[in-house]
Amino acid sequence: MTTPVNTARGSGRQLDHPTPAEIRLEGVLHALSDPMRLRIVRELAEADAELPCSSFDLPVTKSTLTHHFRVLRESGVVQQTYRGTAKLNGLRREELAVLYPGVLDSVLAAAGDRTTDSAAGSATDRS
Amino acid sequence: MTTPVNTARGSGRQLDHPTPAEIRLEGVLHALSDPMRLRIVRELAEADAELPCSSFDLPVTKSTLTHHFRVLRESGVVQQTYRGTAKLNGLRREELAVLYPGVLDSVLAAAGDRTTDSAAGSATDRS
DNA sequence: ATGCTCGTACGATACCCATCGTAGTACGGG
DNA sequence: CCCGTACTACGATGGGTATCGTACGAGCAT
Predict the structure, then answer these.
(1) A83-123, pLDDT tens digit by residue?
(2) Global pTM?
(3) Which residues from A are below 8 Å from B25, CB to CB?
(4) Helices (H) and strands (E) in chain B, counts
């Protein structure tokens, strides 16, 4: 009411992400320690692209999903950008690889993901 | 009172640890996502030996320390054995390395581990 | 035995957090 | 212009958990 300027005026909606220096290891581990979030991260890693929230089919409501994405963003695991009505989510793999080498990769590998990244070329796995 | 058989009768005190198959990645990550516990794990890694609870100098009470050790044990990160009045804590590095290769190592490295003498020993490292 | 140290159990407390529902904003299309 | 889709914000709720204090059990030393 009367103050529609809630989020940020105009179309330049911006979300604040932590800078690499602000990304804490405990925060990353905590973010990854939730089954839902780990699943999200796995899907993002497999897709190796930016996915809108709506492309995730998880057994939770949208509110909860928003919450999880926020945790992932605030912990520095993903970056989010608005695009039209959608919000694209992308893993911050390289930044994390520089900060905490091997952590994300090994967790993804342990979680059943094949680090897709890699070789990308010959992968063909796909479960 | 009147039932002193509280903990376990006799001296055969035993603690139940999860088998490798029972160790869940989320549990490990969650255990490591707490600053106190991460610190404990780092110290254990640096010492590369079994340490009694009392050898940790953390800004929490003994009760809390006991709690953290229990979380670490139940998540499968450490193993505990009684020895006299002390309880020795050891990292389950190899088991974790088999289950989730690289996870513990990279987290320790990211946490600033360095194994003290680190320098990386030139080649011998890697566990 | 007595006492000391090490660790545990239990209860209490306060905080964090995953989840939901509802209401609302932002954007694009008929 | 109105509506539908995508996501958010807010409040509520229940469960988890980090913390403490106190009381206790187990083993060792004197």
Answers:
(1) 999 999 999 999 999 999 999 999 999 987 444 444 443 44
(2) 0.83
(3) 38, 107, 110-111
(4) 5, 3
